[in-house]
Design a protein that fits this description.
This protein is α/β, with parallel strands linked by helices. The strands form 3 sheets. A 7-stranded parallel sheet has the order 3-2-1-4-5-6-10, sandwiched between helices. The chain has a two-stranded parallel sheet with strand order 7-9. It has a two-stranded parallel ribbon with strand order 8-11. The longest helix has 25 residues.
């Protein structure tokens, strides 16, 4: 069959694309940025589109008419610079259902378990309203509700679990005793494969998850064992510690960074991830322990886990470095422009000093904005190279100083290159 996967570049969507292609279906992946996906999976068809802008049935008409099944893996945890939760998870879906009414297309919806805390959040509320609209639409459909998904790769909550598990000495946890129901990504792929093939009853609404959930502390310990690290003590922090972390993550979210520590995720975790009250799909499903052991870790997993918490430190550190390097000279402006006055007139020296200060500040701000962070990092490299070149050409005596220009700029260069290396594309 011809299958369209919404959110095909994501953690779940990319795995489903591989599985459905191996089942023999003709698969088309839809995502906002499919450049890397095309390179990684050239055998699939790819469409670049933003669901948040597909709010009319006419936006979906050609897609619905040209496919037999639509699998929806798309979602947004929280509103941010690049995300509109309601538009993506509800408005776009209602438009899809309207377009699908006049066609034989089947929709397989990847949703979330009901009964979780935080169900009044925009993330869960919009998902549930879209589910209810799908059930009432008359469109052929299956709704699947996976618990926390564990797979070979990691994203969001599963990436955070690995990062916490790799912390040295002790592991600080809020909600350490909360139960977290999990499901293997392979089990989700099996269920979707069956739904696409028509092997599930029409209008099924099923929970996917292992029925013996570990606590959050136990789940982190399982990940630590999976990474090959010795046991570490868990420091159980009061829930009040979650508030400032969630606030900082929400601010980062407004700048386009999709942190798994945003307030929505913390609100859900407060009561645990549970699928209580839903109709369960037939198992057996892999437990968290078996989900991990089915995909043994390698050195790259340990590197990822340790570098995961380093990324925000690098980005914030670079921002502060460039902001201060641009702001501090403004308070000693005459001293700052003395180097330029040796070979420039007063007017050009003043203008160039001011321009470089403003450029430093601009880069320090820009690196905090996710959509332009990569360009800001390249700008930092270019400006650092310009500073080094100009110092070499016009003030070679500076190199006689043991703490000359290269030594002073080298930490920033290394940090910038490191940030580029770990700044993900998705």
């Amino acid at each position: 069959m011809k299958v369209l996967i919404l959110g095909a570049t994501g953690f779940i969507g990319s795995a489903l694309l591989d599985r459905l292609a191996s089942d023999g279906h003709r698969v088309t992946g839809l995502g906002r940025n499919v450049t890397r996906a095309r390179l990684m999976r050239p055998e699939a068809q790819w469409l670049a589109a933003d669901l948040a802008r597909m709010h009319d049935a006419n936006d979906w008409k050609l897609l619905v008419e040209s496919h037999d099944v639509v699998v929806n893996c798309a979602g947004a945890l929280q509103d941010g610079l690049a995300d509109d939760v309601a538009a993506t998870q509800e408005t776009a879906m209602l438009a899809l259902y309207a377009a699908a009414k006049a066609s034989p297309v089947r929709i397989v919806q990847i949703s979330a378990p009901r009964g979780e805390t935080g169900s009044d959040s925009s993330f869960l509320a919009t998902k549930f309203r879209a589910d209810e609209a799908l059930a009432a639409s008359g469109v052929a459909h299956v709704i699947l509700r996976p618990a926390l998904v564990l797979g070979r790769n990691a994203h969001g909550g599963s990436a955070l679990l690995r990062a916490l598990a790799a912390l040295p000495f002790v592991i600080p946890l809020v909600h350490a005793n909360a139960r977290v129901e999990t499901v293997a990504l392979s089990d989700v792929a099996d269920a979707v494969s069956a739904a696409v093939a028509g092997l599930m009853p029409e209008a099924s609404d099923l929970v996917l998850g292992h029925e013996a959930p570990p606590t959050l502390a136990e789940l982190v310990a399982l990940h630590r064992q999976w990474l090959g690290l010795p046991p570490a003590a868990v420091v159980r922090l009061p829930a009040l510690f979650a508030a400032p972390v969630g606030l900082a993550a929400d601010v980062a979210g407004r700048l386009g960074w999709r942190s798994p520590l945003r307030s929505t995720a913390l609100a859900v975790m407060a009561g645990g991830v549970s699928a209580a009250g839903g109709n369960r799909a037939r198992g057996p499903f892999l437990s968290a322990s078996r989900s991990l052991s089915a995909n043994p870790s390698g050195v790259q997993d340990l590197w990822f886990a340790r570098l995961y918490v380093l990324k925000p430190v690098l980005i914030v550190g670079l921002s502060l470095f460039w902001l201060l390097s641009g702001i501090i000279p403004l308070f000693a402006f005459d001293d700052a422009r003395q180097h330029l006055l040796r070979f420039l007139a007063q007017g050009p020296a003043t203008a160039l000093t001011l321009a470089t200060c403003l450029a430093d500040v601009a880069l320090g701000i820009a690196v905090l904005v996710r959509p332009i962070a990569r360009r800001a990092l390249f700008g930092m490299l270019a400006l650092s190279a310009a500073y080094l070149t100009s110092a070499t050409l016009f003030e070679p005596a500076l190199w006689a100083d043991p703490l000359g220009p290269l030594v002073k700029v080298l930490p920033s260069l290394l940090a910038t290159l490191s940030a580029l290396a770990i700044l993900d594309e998705r």
